[in-house]
Amino acid sequence: MLPGAVAPDPLERLSDAYTATVDAASGTDIRVGTTSTRVNDFVNRGPEFDEVYVFPPLLQACALVIGGPFKLSSFHARTLRAGSPTQGLHVDVDRRSADWPLLGFILMVDVFRPDNGATRFVPGSHRREDVRAGEVPDGLVRDVEDLPACGSAGSLLVFNGSTWHGHGTNASSQPRRSLQGAFIPRTGRAGTDFAARMAPTTRARLSPLAHYLLAL
Ligand SMILES: O=C(O)CCC(=O)C(=O)O
Q1: Count of other CB atoms within 10 angstroms of residue 15
Q2: pLDDT in tens, 112-171
Q3: Residue 92 Cα, ligand 1 centroid: separation in angstroms?
Q4: How many helices (H) and strands (E) does the chain have?
Q5: Cys-Cys with 155: which of 8, 22, 55, 151 at CB 3.0–4.6 Å?
Q6: Is the CB of residue 5 less than 8 Å from the CB of residue 107?
């Protein structure tokens, strides 16, 4: 957990831009699931989001977990709606795939609390090899304890994508907003083809580091 990854002023701008962008999204980039609404590709949705995926401590975590050259695979908004139930524990990547190891991150656009669906993690579970991909079977879930990762708005949650996790119940009356993404080995297949989607205005304003991380 990296508190204060986004300072209060830029966070206010990011938060306003998040709401306007999610409200305006349409077509195949928006996916309304049973618990949350997801909007794809926050690389191309405004300068307010540019600093999130180049944040140095996040890249240091990538170097530690991935252990070699890496690139951004996905970067999207996820709003967990009020009243949504707990998500099943899962891992984000198949250990046998070219996208492993994966480093996940979640920027808390709103505070994450136990009662508004803070993401839950089973500490140390990234070392277990009995769940290689997808959902954790019920028989294994019964024997473990998952803990909520709580933090104030602007905190960045960074995790090994093999860690068993899932969002909690949002028992509050407000949506819980977040920006979520993942880094994978450079030889893997990115979830979003950023090069193909790249708008000229985005390309022009992004730093050389961002160009590298997006494999442009
Ligand atoms: O939104 C969350 O708290 C967790 C999301 C998640 O686990 C996922 O999308 O794989």
Answers
A1: 17
A2: 999 999 999 999 999 999 999 999 999 999 999 999 999 999 999 999 999 999 999 999
A3: 9
A4: 6, 9
A5: 151
A6: yes
d(CA 99, ligand 1 centre) in Å: 18
CB neighbours of residue 20 within 10 Å? 13
Q: Parallel, antiparallel, or unpaired for β 176-185 and 103-108?
A: antiparallel
> What residues have CB less than 8 Å from 43, skipping those under 6 apart?
49, 53, 72, 75, 192, 194, 197, 198, 202, 214
pTM above 0.85, yes or no: yes
Per-residue tokens: 195: 């090069």
Task: Point out the ligand 1 atom lying closest to the alpha carbon of residue 80.
Answer: 1
Distance 88 CA to ligand 1 centre (A): 10
Per residue in 51-78, pLDDT tens? Answer: 999 999 999 999 999 999 999 999 999 9
In this structure, which residue's CA is closest to atom 9 in ligand 1?
166
Domains of the chain: residue spans and CATH:
8-126+137-213 (2.60.120.620)
Joined tokens for residue 60: 């240091």
